[in-house]
Amino acid sequence: MENYRIDQSKGLEFGIYTLGDHLANPLTGERISAEQRIHEIIEYAKLADQAGLDFFSVGESHQAYFATQAHAVVLSAIAQATEKIKIGSSSTIISTSDPVRVYENFATLDLISKGRAELIAGRASRIGLFDLLGYDVRDYEGLFEEKFDLLRKINEEEVVNWSGEYRAALNNAEIIPRPQNGSLPIWRAVGGTPASAIKAGYAGVPMFMAHLGGPASIFKRTIDAYREAASRGGFDPAQLPVATAGFFYAADTSQQALKDLYPHINEGMKKTNGQGFPKQHFAQGVDPHNIMNIGSPQEIIEKILYQHEQFGHQRYIAQIDFGGMPFDKLMKNIELIGSEILPAIKKYTAKKLEG
Amino acid sequence: MKVAALSGSNVGSKTRTAMNYTIKALTEKYPDTEVTLLDLAEYEIQFSDGRNYLEYQGDTGHVTKTIMEADAIIIGTPIFQASIPATLKNIFDLLPVNAFRDRIVSMLVTAGSQKHYLIAENQLKPILGYMKAQIVQTYVFIEEANFYRKELTNDDVLFRIERLVEDTVLLTETYAKIREEKEAEYDF
């Protein structure tokens, strides 16, 4: 776990992520400018840092209603504005980028942040960027697997010899600058289904698993499949971190939390995915065994501890800002996390040091 | 109420003829409904490549978005080789998994033989059910013998079309009402 800068004696890591969506607040119908949205994301990261959270990440989506296409640039501003919090991407679409340039960006980010940068590489759930950037979506899988392998090779070897199908060969290529400690934590982003998780496990790569809703038990199957594949691939699952990522919202009561959050999720998903979130499914989100972390601080603590018991994961990251959530609500959530949720979770999940 | 009337084949005239009668019956009886005819013979539709329906351009984008905005969808389909035509299956493939959630779907089938009667039951309804449609269970099945030069000649078929239209509107209105009451209970 040290390779991935995770200290299990301190308990489950808690972080925040944003997709960088840029949507109107459905309650007022108003959408802030892209400039303001980006500054609010930077401010959000600062608050998370001050509240003692472990991680903050920003994603890239190249389509309408998003503002952080240049997510590495936004992360670099966050690196400058924060002190202790680890920062990363959620995720970097490696399929449609050059792994060399991506590595240069994130190694630089690691130097700016003094060793706090991580890279989470994904395949894209919204595929408009293939057309935009000149790739054929029929190569969806091939592009990802080849470029992800190259990215990991660059991380492991400073001088790279490589050839493949989708990029010019590299001959004794020196990829610089190097990150502060020589390499970066690189994760594979995985949707909820086992197929991609198995690939991550078999290659011995840490897994970042995103989830919308549903019972935690479904996602446990994906995590179990990941660890089983890792064993078959000759890796020790105990050395491979697993992170989960999903909706989060804390309020005084679970009813208030549902009320505050629902319009943002429902209207936001209509705009970005073309379909809203059914109320019936959302109402089930407060169930203690549902993976959506929505409710009062105490209910959320119990949910996260239940998930930890089921998953044995090392990090959870929360998505709170989707769908034009106003900044004062984000501040309130960070405050509740920092003052009530985080201390309880750390207390109950910290592993005793051996010996 | 928005209704999409989807004529699912890009060849022949019988399904389109029956759809014309259906739309006429609908607009005469329910003048407030907003009906859009989507006759696949009039569009250039690409094959599904897995992207979100919002990302398709041109005719493909128009057809998928019109369906996704409708409260009810009336599907007219011929039977080819003992199944629905590929053009219609492609429309389903272009849409999201739960595309018909909270939408009413009714069916009208034209066929060259009575032997095809159960094909909608066995092949079309399972797809609609998987896509979460509220299905109008009774469909109109029209044999080739009922057509003469792009007209329907059998009064019984006309009566059945009238009932299909009524059932579609009735179920759409009823379902909307039930859903509204259920959602009001959630208090969020």
UniProtKB/TrEMBL annotation, chain A:
Pfam families in the record: Bac_luciferase
Classification via InterPro entries: Bact_Lucif_Oxidored (IPR050766), Luciferase-like_dom (IPR011251), Luciferase-like_sf (IPR036661)
The protein, known as: Luciferase
Domain Luciferase-like: 13-310
Coiled-coil residues: none
Alphabetized UniProt keyword annotations: Monooxygenase, Oxidoreductase
Superkingdom as given in the UniProt entry: Bacteria
GO cellular-component term (any): cytosol
Gene3D superfamilies, sorted: Luciferase-like domain (3.20.20.30)
Gene Ontology MF, one: oxidoreductase activity, acting on paired donors, with incorporation or reduction of molecular oxygen
From TrEMBL, chain B:
Pfam family, one: FMN_red
One annotated GO molecular function: oxidoreductase activity
Record InterPro entries: Flavoprotein-like_sf (IPR029039), FMN_Rdtase-like_dom (IPR005025), NAD(P)H-dep_FMN_reductase (IPR051814)
Keywords (A to Z) from UniProt: Flavoprotein, FMN, Oxidoreductase
NADPH-dependent FMN reductase-like domain residues: 1-145
SUPFAM superfamilies linked: Flavoproteins
PANTHER family: FMN REDUCTASE (NADPH)
Protein name, per record: FMN reductase
Species annotation: Paraliobacillus quinghaiensis
